[in-house]
Amino acid sequence: MSQYRKLRRRHSILDLCHSPELAAAVTLQPVERLGVDAAIIFADILLPFEPLRLGLRFASGEGPVIDRPIRDAGDVERLPSFNVEAELGFVLDAIRLARRALPADVPLIGFAGAPFTLASYAIEGGASRTFTKTKQLMYQAPDTWHLLLSKLADLVGLYLAAQARAGAQALQLFDSWVGCLSPDDYRTYVQPHSRKALTLAKDAGVPLIHFGTGTATFLEDFTAAGGDVISVDWRIPLDAAWSRIGDRAIQGNLDPAALLAPAGERTRQVRDILARAGRRAGHIFNLGHGVLPETDVAAIRAVVDLVHGG
After folding, report:
1. How far apart are CA 229 and CA 227, in angstroms?
2. Residue 151: what pLDDT?
3. What CA–CA distances, in Å, run from 23 to 5, 12, 43, 244?
4. What residues form DSSP beta bridges with 175?
5. Spatial separation of the C-alpha atoms in residues 216 and 183, rounded to whole Å
6. CATH 3.20.20.210 describes domain 2-231
7. Residues 109 and 170: beta-carbon distance below 8 Å
C-alpha cells in the first residue's frame, strides 16, 4: 500500500518493528484501507533472533540475512535464554497501542514463527529453496536438532502468551516452510515441538491459528499438533481439507497469485472457495500465504467486498 511504501522509504523493516508507534500505525493501515475483519500486528517472525544474538539484518533485494547461523551443537548450546517481555517488549507495546486504536469490534491477532520455520532460517542463514543445510543437521545430528527446536518451542510459546497478555485476541503460529518435509519427517522432527509451542500458548486463553503451507500430504498430523483454527493453502480444495481436519475451524485458501488475475477469474476462484465452505460456521476466508508485492490494492479490496457480500 502507498502509505506503507512511504514509511519504508524513511525506515527499515527493523526500524518499523522497533518503534511501537510506527508498528501500530502500520497495523491499522489494512483495516482502514481494505475493510478486513481483523488486524494482525506488524512485526517479523525473525525478531527473536536479535536477543538470540544470531545477527539478524535485512539486505536490500535479498530479504533476511543471519550473520551467525547455527551449524552445530555448540551453536545451539550457546543460545542465550532471555525474558521475552523485556527483550521483545517493543512488540508488546505495539500490540497495546494498536489495540487501543482499533475499533472495539476488530480483533487484533498476534503471531510468531513456528520452531521449524525459525530453525530453517537460523540454519540456512536466510531464506532457502532447498533447505539443504536444515535437513542435513536434522538427519546427521538429531539430538542437536531436537535441542534446538525444543529451545525455540519454549521461546515461541512464551512469546505468544505474552502477546495475548498485551492485548492480542488471537494468536497465529506461522510454519511457512514446513511443507518441504515428508510426512514421516514432520511427525518425527517437527510435530512434537509445534505441539509444545502451541500448548504453552494455549495457556493464554485465546484462540490459536496454526498456519502452514504445503501441508496437504500430512494435514492430519499438522492438525494433531494443535490449534483451534487450521490454515490451508491453495494446493488442496477447502472442502477436502475441512473433511480431513474434523471439527476444527479452517482458514484459507485463495492462491495469492489469483489477486493478479483478471477480475472474472479472481471472482470465480473466490466464489469457488465460498461455495466449498458452504456457509458452514468456522471458515475464515484468507489467502493461502502472504500478499505478493506486485498486487494491486484494488484487487484485494475487491476480494474483501466480494467475501462480505457472500
Report:
1. 5
2. 98
3. 14, 12, 7, 37
4. 212
5. 10
6. yes
7. yes
